Amino acid sequence: MNDNFAHAHGTVMILAWMIFGSTGVLFARYGRVLRVGNQRQFLGKSIWFQTHRFLLSLSSLLILLGFFLIIIYRRGQWVSVAINGPILFTHSIVGSIIVCCIILQIWLALYRCNPHSPFRFIFNWTHRITGSLAFGFSFINLFLIIFVLKQQHIALLIIVSLWTSWMIIIVIFFELIQYQYRKVSALMARNARVSYTNQEGGNTNVQPDTEAGTNPTIENQRLNKVKLFLFLIHIIISIVLSIPLIIIIWNQS
What we know:
75% of the residues lie in helices and 2% in strands. β1 and β2 form a beta hairpin. The termini are close together. It is found in: Membrane.
C-alpha cells in the first residue's frame, strides 16, 4: 500500500511537469500573439493567458498533491542520508525547493498588481524567475530519480534524455519563429509609417492602421499555423513519453 503512494507521487509529478507544466510555460513564452482561427481572445482574455493560467493552475495542484502523497508515504519523516542515500536526499531537497516556488507562484498569481501599475515589472520578473527555477529543477529531479528506482534504468534514462532533448529542440524552433515574427512586424510597422506619411499630404482624413505593427494578421498566418502545429506536436510527444515513464514507475517493486 505504501508503494502505491510513492508510485502515485511519481505519476502526478510527471503529469504536472511533462504535460501540463511544460505546455503552460511554452504558451507564456511563445503563445502571446497566437490566435485560433480569427480569435485572439477567449472569455474576454487572450487565448495564451487563459491557456497558460489553466495549465499552470492544474500543474500546481498536481505538484501539491504529489507533495502530500510523498508525505503520506514517508509518514511525515524526512529523508535520511544515512538510511536512504545522498541521491534520494538530494531529490527531496530539490523537490522541496520546487514546492516552495509553486506556493510563491500561487501567491503571486492571486495578488498580482494591475498591468498598468508602475510596480508590475516586479511581479513580471519574480514570476518569470520563480517559474523558470521550478521548471529547471524538475529536470534535475527527473534525472535524480532514475538512480533511485531499482529497475529499468536504461529505459528511464532514454526516456528522460529524449524528453530533455525535445524541450531544447522545441525551444530552438520557437525562437526561430519568434525571430521571424519580429522581422515581419518591424517591416509592417515601417510600411505603415511610410504609407501614413505619403497620405498626410493628400488626404488628412485617412488614418493609419494602428494595428499593423503590433497585430499583423495576413503576413503572419503561416507563422501562426506553424506555432499551432508545434504546440500540438509538443503535447503529443509529452504524452507519448509520459505514458511509458508512468508504466515503469508502477512496475517498480
